[in-house]
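hiii, so i know i said id send this last week but things got crazy w the move. better late than never?? heres the sequnce for the chain we talked about at the cafe, plus the structure i predicted for it. fair warning i was half asleep when i ran it
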Amino acid sequence: MRLWWETLPGLRQAEMDAFEARGWRVRVDPAAEAQGFLVVHVEFPLDGEALPLRVAYPAQFPYFRPAVYAPPGRFPEHQNPIDGVLCLLGPRTQEWHPETTVAGFLEERIPALLDAIDGGRPLVEQQAEIRAGYLPYDDPSYVLFDSAWAPPAGARSGSLVAKGALLASGERLLLRMAITKAKTGGREIPVEVVPFQSAPGSFTIEFPFAVVDGLDMEEKPDAHWAKVAHLFPGLDRRLKESTVGGKKWQFAVAALLAAEEIQKGIRGFSFVTFLIHRPKGTRDFRVARIRGLRAGRQDMGARVPATQILRDRHVLLVGCGAIGGQIAVELSKAGLGRLTLFDYDHVEPGPTVRWPLGQSFFGESKSAALAAHIKQHWPQAKVTAYTGVVGGAAVPEGPVEGVTLDEVMEGVHLVIDATAEVGVQHYMSDRCREVGIPYIYASATPGAKGGIVARFMPRDGQGCWFCLQHAMYQDGAIQEPGHDDAAEVLPAGCNHPTFAGAGYDLLEVSLQGVRMAVQALDPRRTAETFAAVLDFKEELGLPAWRAHGVPRFGGCECQG
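okay and structure toks below
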């Protein structure tokens, strides 16, 4: 890769000239230059003195900003207290203007930093000064906690209860756990976070915490622990033991709850946890500093506020193939509280080219595979999986693993049908209309040239599934979606016809199904019956959606 000052001749000299024009003393770091980087040491005039700055130009300058370092601890805010880098702009790349010289940038932003510290205009809008974020951690260890939880006013210590697991990584231990309970002042307070996924060797542990008003900015975990160990007297005499990776370990856990700004203008707590451990029979402890990850209900919903209504909703998804599988995953990610999956098929290699899961699930039933995946990654969704055929002949123990379809539908707020089977759609739509449950069906057309997602809300006066089929395929009131009937295929070893079409095209149908499902589940809005019809503009590959109401067919006996 060519150096930026070779690609843009004259730019490096213009940078040096800009420093010289201001009368600032500048020295190029020869060691960095020998490695292909430009690092300059600048004496910035500040209050009659020279503030030493180190400016590291990025390899892609001038498209991206430089990193500017001052002596660590020089400024009480807007500076990483460990490496000294200054926070002169917000994190977004568009805040840096490529036509700016670094000298001009410093001339403008250093005074702005001082104004911010002195209580003037804010340096970075809506950005909190979270000091815990500056510390280096022993990743990928973590502790899950809830931002909304705080110890009672005046409490300075207590204990936390967590579910967790230890993992061996060479000569160190990794710790992953989720806080479930706090004990302080004789009170026991539940803490709600994303459920911890149990693994071999999982345990429940109680360990002490101490509240601190500020964090020591020590780069090395053992030096940091040496400064705070007095807050946890006798901890090294209350060691726990566990066999991990075939080796016996002794360990102890302690946490600091650091009071600090967690959002602009909002104070809360950051978690910094220490894992003190050693192989049993050895003398010296290793200290690991563990990152706290915010995983409470409010934390998980902050990025998708519109889907918070899903947490107490229950969806039945019939059909877990290319379209249904993606719907299941997306609803779970969005925070759905309960999901019931129903499918007859198992996972084969060929269809995974357009299915969300891959080789590790070959041979499993699709519904069970999706349930296992969702439970591992989005465990707030309570998933039940059934393997069976809608319309299959009943057997003595019942048509589906000992339960009837009516029992599966009990307590459901919405049914989504992704089977692409006309007979199933006809039955499920009639059954949902009969019991007053909203019904959505989602399917693609042969060749993935188009698709349809239709939502039917009970008793809203519009037509039913049968009315929609008549409008599209009989009287032409609604133009049917694009299709290529020649694209139907019967792969080797498969006795059920399918169609050619890529997963990235089918995903359009899945995502529209999720949008319409969230609307139907939202008690704050009145969702309507309508059909979303998809066509792909072949020359450009652009998806084009059309929205249609569902006219009632005079020959249909539906009640709307």
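btw The CA atoms of residues 309 and 522 lie 6 Å apart. thought thatd interest u
miss u guys!!
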